[in-house]
Amino acid sequence: MPVNGEADEPGWEVDPDDEWGVAVLTTVGRQLKLRREAVGMRAGDFGVAVGYGEDLVYKVEGGKRIPRREYLEKADQVLDAGGLIAAAWEDVKRVRYPKHVRDLAKMEAQAVESLSYATHNLHGLVQTEEYARALLATRRPALSEGELDRAVAARMARKAIFERDPAPELSFVQEEATLRRPVGGKMVLLRQLEHLLEVARLRHVEVQVMPTSRGDHPGTGGRIQVLKFGDGTAVGRADDEFDNRPVTDPRQLRILELRYGIIRAEALTARESNAFIEQLLRET
Questions:
Q1: What is the distance between the alpha carbons of residues 243 and 73, in angstroms, rounded to a whole number?
Q2: Residues 29, 61: contact at Cβ < 8 Å?
Q3: Run of H or E including 238
Q4: Helices (H), 39-144
Q5: Residues 120, 229: contact at Cβ < 8 Å?
Q6: Which three-class secondary structure state does DSSP give residue 9?
């Protein structure tokens, strides 16, 4: 497909601070360039053959742009590489999302239990793609279309946690306001609530709602998240504790778990929360 603008570019910008990602993409780009030059094809001609501009070809070859899978597959065909270039996707896909998202996804993939309390919007793991896109589009300074696509794709990729076997225990407590705020508009919110209800009905998932009428509780200071691992270790974070930095010290984790336990106790039960979401769906 010809390039008509940034949204059609064959990948995303590389974070220069992501050393591993830079190394992988530099290697892949170098191999692409060597293959192209070996067959005597100029960058401009190659761009025409794969359906992208010459400038973007140079960016990918220079390790400045993260190629998408279809770009590598087209390049493999044009350069008659016998699948070697297309196979590079296995390396590229591991670094295609920002490092902080990869680190979070890695921890979520290893967790046997997750405790999450959200105050301003729905937790990323339960968001629909259109809700996530609308929410991420509110960032300032605004994300470019390419950055927005990458951020949405990264968030959706984390949903792989729901497909794990054995499944981890997932607990979400959402402030009532997050279920009423029409992020993306009424229909986006409607589909988001429907999806949340589907997730809440999974056997290893518990979704609870903290009513706005609950005044003082340990979650009024902001978000809390704790991930527990099979070896007995854990990592946690809270907006208003420990300078909002991840903690692994058992004493600090105990504080976060204690706060989360009180929050769960003061929120609606899972059954009451499901009924509450169903009521919101009727009202929306």
A1: 45
A2: yes
A3: strand 234-238
A4: 43-50, 54-61, 69-78, 89-92, 99-110, 129-136
A5: no
A6: coil
Q: Which two tokens stand for residue 64?
A: 């400045």
CA 182/CA 134 separation, integer angstroms: 10
In whole angstroms, how far apart are CA 164 and each of 35, 152, 154, 160, 183?
38, 21, 17, 7, 29
Residues contacting 232, CB < 8 A, separation 6+: none
Residue with tokens 């706005």: 212
This prediction's pTM: 0.74
What does residue 11 show for φ and ψ, rounded to 5 degrees? 170, -165
Cis geometry, peptide bond prior to residue 2 (ω within 30 degrees of 0): no
Taking alpha carbons only, the member of 149, 11, 144 closest to residue 74 is: 11
**φ and ψ of 209, to 5 deg:** -115, 130
Report pLDDT digits (tens) over 65-118. Answer: 889 889 999 999 999 999 999 999 998 887 877 777 778 878 998 999 999 999
C-alpha angle 278/279/283, rounded to 5°? 120
